[in-house]
Amino acid sequence: MTSDFDEEVRRSTILVADDTEQNVELLQAYLDDLGCRTVPAYDGQETLEKVASEKPDLILLDIMMPKVSGYEICKQLKENPETASIPICMVTALKEESDIERAVEAGTDDFLSKPINRWELLTRVRSLLRVRHLQNELERVLAYQQEVDEAEADRGEDAEAPV
Fold first, then answer.
1. DSSP state, 65?
2. Which residues of 97-131 are buried (b: 16+ CB within 10 A; e: fewer)?
3. Residue 79 belongs to what H/E stretch?
4. Domain locations in the chain as residue ranges
């Protein structure tokens, strides 16, 4: 028996951005266990293009990318209201505390160090997708509530209008 959340995970799209093809293939193989759709990107510019065209639910982002760095990609996406709510997990071989601080300052939601532990990756991905889907649900509920409030206000105005 599967939960509603498991179904949402399977309907999710994860953008896997890394300039090393083997890293992308490994992450995609690990993510196969979740049954979600993965989309690869191999440089910073392609990553930005794929975010625009694919509208992913989650981004796994290498920091050291050609053309545009992972830091800059993260910063751009978090500053854009249309992409700011997409969770980003930085995936990198960089181990210095300053690298982690810089990723957090750029807006990353989580951080994984290479070599990637499969269990840790899947746990974090499921957690970030849960947050993403809860945000989406909250936005739907708030939009519905606003429609109800506006409809009630319109009915109230109609009732007060002179005949």
1. -
2. eebbebbeebbbbbbbeeeeeeeebeebbbebbee
3. helix 70-79
4. 4-132
Nearest 10 degrees: Cα torsion 49, 47, 54, 134: -130
Q: How far apart are CA 59 and CA 129, in angstroms?
A: 10
Query: pLDDT per residue over 47-66, tens digit each?
Result: 999 999 999 999 999 999 99
At 87-120, the pLDDT tens digits run 999 998 877 788 888 899 999 999 898 899 999 9
Residue 41: helix, strand or coil by DSSP? strand
* Tokens encoding 156: 């109230």
User: 4-132 falls under which CATH superfamily?
Assistant: Response regulator (3.40.50.2300)
Tokens read off for 35 = 């049954």
Q: Which pTM does this prediction carry?
A: 0.84
